[in-house]
Amino acid sequence: MLLRKINAIISLFTTFLLLVHAIFNAVRMMSRGTIKESGAFMPWILFGLMLAHAVISIDFAITAHSETEKRKCKSYPKLNVATIFQRISGIILIVFTGLHVAGAVGFMHLPKPVHAIFHPLFFTLALAHAAFSTSKAFITLGIGNAKIIKVVDIVIKVICTATIIAALTGVYLYKV
Questions:
Q1: Cβ atoms of residues 2 and 145 within 8 Å
Q2: In this predicted structure, what is the pLDDT of residue 50?
Q3: Which fold has domain 2-175?
């Protein structure tokens, strides 16, 4: 249970830094690069937190799957759609994050057509993953009651949607 709470805290910090990173870069793109680049350490902290969150989450998913197999229980036929989305988007994000970091440090350069598809898809997937996961982190940490969790869920989804729109605007109008 302690590891679940640590993972929830890591995911909340990751969500906060992801939003800061996405908003800052969207503003930078919309200002056509006149705003200075973010500090070199913040994206690496975000990457480290994402990596820790991914490792812990993969461990939880494997453990949950093997425990179900041991008990030979039928899994829920209609597993929570948000949980399925979290798992699938999390796996895809591991690959996308690796590609994003490789491009950011200069190991690879995407052709413009690929860049025009990859980055918007990456932004959307990362922020959607955060939007569907934040309220679950609050539940794991025991923060708030059902009404507060519902408000947090709505607020984070609105913030993530606005950030996606800003990021897409920045990419399509000024970067591509």
A1: no
A2: 92
A3: Four Helix Bundle (Hemerythrin (Met), subunit A) (1.20.120)
Contact 104, 43 (CB under 8 A): yes
Mind listing the pLDDT tens digit for each residue in 62-92? 887 666 555 555 555 555 787 888 889 999 9
Residue written as token pair 């453990």: 63
Please give the span between the terminal C-alpha atoms of the chain, in angstroms, as a whole number. Answer: 45
Q: Which residues, including other chains, have CB under 8 Å from residue 73's CB and lie 6 or more apart?
A: none
Residue with tokens 């895809």: 92
Predicted pLDDT of residue 154:
92
Domain boundaries, the chain: 2-175
Angle of CA points 108, 112, 115, to nearest 5°: 65
